[in-house]
Amino acid sequence: MSEPSASQAMRDPYLEWIAAEGLPVAEDFGVDLFQVETRPWARLGANGAAVHLKGRGDFCNMFLYELAPGGASAPQRHLYEEVVCVLAGRGSTAIEVERGQTHSFEWGPGSLFAIPLNARHRHFNGSGAERALLASTTTLPVVLNLFHNPAFVFDNDWHFAERIGRPGYFKGEGEYVALGQNHLWETNFVPDLAGIGLGEYGARGAGGRNLKLILADGTMHAHISELPAGTYKKAHRHRGGIHVVCVTGRGYSLLWNQGERDFHRFDWQHGHVHVPPEDMFHQHFNLSPERSRYVAVGLGSNRYPFTASARRTKSGGSNTSVKEGGDQIEYQDQSPDIHPLYREEMRKAGVEVRMPEFA
Predict the structure, then answer these.
(1) For residue 179, is pLDDT > 90?
(2) Quick one: CA dihedral 249, 319, 327, 303, positive or negative?
(3) Measured distance CA(318)–CA(297) in Å, rounded
(4) pLDDT reported for residue 357
(5) Average pLDDT, integer, range 181-201
(6) Distance from C-alpha of 117 to C-alpha of 81, rounded to nearest angstrom
(7) Short-list 333, 337, 336, CA closest to 321
(8) Cα(314)–Cα(303) distance, rounded to whole angstroms?
């Protein structure tokens, strides 16, 4: 039997598609999205780029959309989910639903929205002077590698009526449910990630707050987390592919594999994104004199966990101490280097540490 040719074995249809699209690709442990190079993307009708972070895993990626002043994207529809975070600019998105009906909503910096599966849509830059920059986390890698047929993914006319949700979901309205420490908000559009109310999330420590989002009845998860000034979270680990985008404030994250003494460090502020790799411990630290917020997006929602790892996380595993078989390191068990490093970083920043009752 002859050896298989390169075209017959070890293929990655998603990466092949990226190459065929002619997109620039930014790759690193973490990225400042404002510094990523974009180029004309024929499919989008605007400039774009792909962002492949080290911990993105097998399921998700990120695209960057850059709309010129007064510009718009070409109409799009596709059989993968996407959650879009607005980094800069103001504009609107029109989403076509059944029988030509269209829902439109206006967005600005710090807005977040989901595109209902396979709904035709366009993005419009509302400014005639400034660009709009959108970061879209998607499930295209798993979908394209599963079907390995771009025409099926991009030219399918099936209508998923159940994904549209209520008309108010496109206006920033939604439905709230509290399940223990899980504060859930179902919607399609969050106008302001920095201003939306969050629920208490004491399990992660230091007075943090959190809101988990169910978007367009999707399998993609998103949550907003807040670190009060002068504080940091407990270390934890979870599945890969969770794209963490800073919305307000500035700080840093430390990441390490179990058994390692040396930390990987990523400094962040608005527009910076990183993805903690699968089962890699990580811990987030606020260096700002005010609260810091970030939004995290990946596969596996509270409604549809999709993977056993996500189900474990959402069933409380990520809030349970590693000493009890969970995935969280309590303050009293963290590395002795953690707190002195934070005190020193806060001294340099001229900000008061407010952790005495926690660490």
Answers:
(1) no
(2) negative
(3) 16
(4) 67
(5) 95
(6) 6
(7) 333
(8) 10
Q: CB burial class (10 A; 0-12, 13-18, 19+) of residue 332? A: exposed
Domain borders along the chain are 13-163, 172-349
Pairing between strand 46-53 and 91-96?
unpaired
CATH of domain 13-163: 2.60.120.10
d(CA 29, CA 254) in angstroms, rounded, equals 12
The three state secondary structure string of 164-223 is CCCHHHHCCCCEEEEECCEEEEEECEECCCCCCCCEECHHHCCCCEEEEEEECCCCEEEE
Tell me what the mean pLDDT of segment 259-288 comes to: 96
For position 1, what pLDDT does the model report? 44
Tokens of 6: 């390169």
- Helix%, strand%, coil% for the chain, nearest 5: 20, 35, 45
Distance between CA 167 and CA 103 in Å, rounded? Answer: 8
- Cβ proximity of 298 and 241 under 8 Å: yes
Q: Do domains 13-163 and 172-349 have the same CATH topology?
A: yes
With 0-12 CB in 10 A as exposed, 13-18 as middle and 19+ as buried, what is 341? Answer: middle
Nearest to residue 49, comparing CAs of 61, 35, 36? 36
- pLDDT range class, residue 120, cuts 50, 70, 90: very high
- Topology of the domain covering 172-349: Jelly Rolls (2.60.120)
Residue 80 · residue 153 · CB < 8 Å: yes
pLDDT at 3: 53
* SS3 track for 306-359: CCHHHHHHHCCHHHCEHHHCCCEECHHHCCCCHHHHHHHHHHHHCCCCCCCCCC
Structure pTM?
A: 0.95
Query: What is the gyration radius of the CA atoms in the chain, in angstroms?
Result: 20
